[in-house]
Amino acid sequence: MNTQEIIQAESAYVLQTYIRPPIVFTHGKGLKLTDSDGREYLDFSAGIAVTALGHSDEAWVAAVTAQAARLTHVSNLYHSEPQVHLAQKLVESSFADKVFFCNSGAEANEAAIKFARKYARRDHSEQSIEYKNGQSMSKTKIVAFSGGFHGRTVGALAVTYKEQYRTPFAPLLPDVVFATFNNLASAKTAIDAQTCAVIVEPVQGEGGVNPATPEFLKGLRQLCDQHDALLIFDEVQCGLGRTGKLWAHQHTSVQPDIMTLAKPLAGGLPIGAALVTQKVADVIKPGDHGSTFAAGPLVCAAANVVFDRLNRPEFLEQVRFHGSYLQHRLRTLESDKIVAVRGAGLLVGVLLNEAAAPFIAAARERGLILINAGENVLRLAPALVVNKSEIDTAVDILAACLA
Description:
By secondary structure, the protein is of the alpha/beta class. It has 2 domains: about 5-55 and about 310-400, Aspartate Aminotransferase, domain 1, CATH 3.90.1150.10; about 60-310, Type I PLP-dependent aspartate aminotransferase-like (Major domain) (Aspartate Aminotransferase, domain 2, 3-Layer(aba) Sandwich), CATH 3.40.640. Helices cover about 35% and strands about 20% of the residues. It has helices spanning about 5-15, 45-50, 60-70, 80-90, 105-125, 155-160, 165, 185-190, 215-225, 280, 295-310, 315-330, 355-365, 390-400, and strands at about 25-30, 30-35, 40-45, 100, 130, 135, 140-145, 175-180, 195-200, 205, 210, 230-235, 260, 270-275, 340-345, 345-350, 370, 370, 375-380. It is globular, with a radius of gyration of 21 Å. It starts with a helix and ends with a helix.
């Protein structure tokens, strides 16, 4: 099939939940993507911050190939060695005592919501759920924040801020309250004795690449401790080296009770994880949650390669260096269209005073793949193996588009 035939067949047979540009990618290497017409592109989206090691990394390909020839799937009814190795690495490199595996970021956040509700019932199971003015008077409230994005499934969608995502599917999960991101006074008003969990991204991705301040996260930790609520950090996009630390919250001294992961963990294969402290693990029993496909041998073989690379101090040092260089280059662009450059590490947002979509299209025409983070924010999230030359090329193309 040629390019146009593939696009026409997609329109005929695939449910249209995405607006895709007229490109069919066929292969990639490092930060380069090639389409079905043989044209090359510099990929500064990494599949929405997923392909952390770039496309077709040799060690990743070797591990996946070897594992596919050995064993792909047995389900979570049985033990498998790659899963155990990955779990041990995640736990030993974090605050957590246990990990629950799933298949995506939305699933990880669904698990976090379930675990928080179950945790709250350990001392409050005798309470019936009573409502007053539309709000539950039991310990079931979840506090989320303006600009937050946590997924498209019903529970994760309920704690996602953007109203246009939620409204067509209402009513959603009840007892969700939104406070203002980076506003501790607003959080104090929302978090109370009925709160079972607070969910927040240490660096918001879809909401515009907005880092949480250390003071805000510290205040949330104190409020959760005060009201016996669990603090959930959604690091689906900002975790696993993206900010220059293994975990985004390591830029502060604050630790969560639950942390959710997904996007880059298996380098492009589907995986998610919810890391929990022992006090949370203690309330979860066999049968409380599960997944047929989660963390199968093939996916975990890939994830072990990715994690081992991302967890090297010298690798993270390079992420910090290239992240600083990227932000420096962007901040020195002379354009009256740029309002601000913000982010952490290699998760960077360029806030514009007009819509981002035309500039994304113009960059694509010049061979650069970018994505947005809201209507007027350009998001740059290249593979974490990006180099200075590739950053220079990308910024030069963007400068031409903004001129």
